[in-house]
Amino acid sequence: MSNFIFVLDTNKKQSEPIHPASARLLLKQGKATVFRLYPFTIILKEAVTEIPEPLELKIDPGSKTTGLAILQGDKVIFGADLTHRGQAIKASLESRRSLRRGRRSRHTRYRQPRFLNRTRPKGWLAPSLQHRVETTLSWVRKLIRFAPIGSISQELVRFDLQQIENPEISGVEYQQGELFGYEVREYLLNKWDRKCSYCGVENTPLQVEHICPKSKGGSNRISNLCLACEKCNQSKGTQLIEQFLAKKPEVLKRILAQAKKPLKDAAAVNSTRWELFKQLKALGLPVNNGSGGLTKFNRTRLNLPKTHWLDAACVGKIDGLKLKTNKPLLIKAAGHGSRQMCRTNKFGFPSRYVPRLKFVKGFQTGDIVKAIVTTGKKIGNYVGRIAVRSSGSFNISASELVQGISHKYCRTIHQKDGYNYAQ
């Protein structure tokens, strides 16, 4: 079952989302037209006076993918996975820096380095981290425009590191209850990539393992914990890890290094969570929050699979969930292109130039088009993101890249907005 369909009246006022079958009926009867393809939204040809029931938007921020879910009471009517491009931004900045340094070392023409004339404002985030905040906010604003959102819930605390490091602290109720185990276990699952630290087996029940056994003086600190399958855990027993892995020095070296290694993804989420929370509060809607351990506790209790949009639906305190959709909208940030007019090779020398005009035959790179090719070697129907060429022969990224499609066969179905979509 697909997501529910967003509905706007003739004045672009949000109405209650409806079932896809109801939307098809309205379109067939001519009472509505398609307003937007992603997320699919229809606009009615008359005004609606009824006040819709407020919906709740839930967000599960992630370093690579953020989960979004819209709930109508206890019914999940919309889900989406938003994939960020933070690593691509980081790689582009590193590439630009290396090219500039290479030109300086060769004493060729380059922009002078700037050091002491730049100051970072309070709350500054690296571009790859700021991107995560801005793309999430962009989609929150879009969903608020298309649906009657009444409140927002965010998974604010990804990992409560103070409680993980100091489990003996008293006075906090859930700290001594069942949620503490979920906080620690979720942290370890992310840190050890959800597989056995010793043999690398995946998709099997994993147990929390003490690297240095407690009988040998090991502690419960997070740096002394890893994950192991039952077979490895039983084989190791109370041995020191140096004894257990005496014949596997490479594995021993990796485990000892990873035990002290910080969690990169968790650090990215922790760096951006408060900035995202502050920006969400500025939207003027009530904003609630919950911890990562509570999210996993809810998902496990309801026996739901591990996905980003279902994690979002499980944020905060919930009694139960009714899934009215099982096909989330897959959103991938693709960027708006580059303003660089001259492309360079790996050494930083010019290789080709880009036309000044972005539009070719009424299309621009990033538009999602539908091409119905009736003649030639590429007969067929194609739907995907295009890359324009001055010749009018475009490339379409559908399930695979198709090159050399004439603009005469193309029809725009969704204008460029910096994202790719799939269902």
Question: What do you see in this structure?
Answer:
- Helix content is 29%, strand content 27%.
- Among the domains are: 53-85 and 126-160 and 265-333, 2-Layer Sandwich (Nucleotidyltransferase, domain 5), CATH 3.30.420.10; 192-260, DNA Binding (I), subunit A, CATH 1.10.30.50; 343-418.
- The model is unreliable at 168-178 (pLDDT under 50).
- The strands form five sheets. Strands 5, 6, 7, 8, 11, 12, 13 and 21 form an eight-stranded mixed sheet that branches. A five-stranded antiparallel sheet has the order 19-18-17-16-20, with no helix packed on it.
- The protein has 423 residues and is an alpha+beta fold.
Summarize the structure.
Helix content is 29%, strand content 27%. By secondary structure, it is of the alpha+beta class.
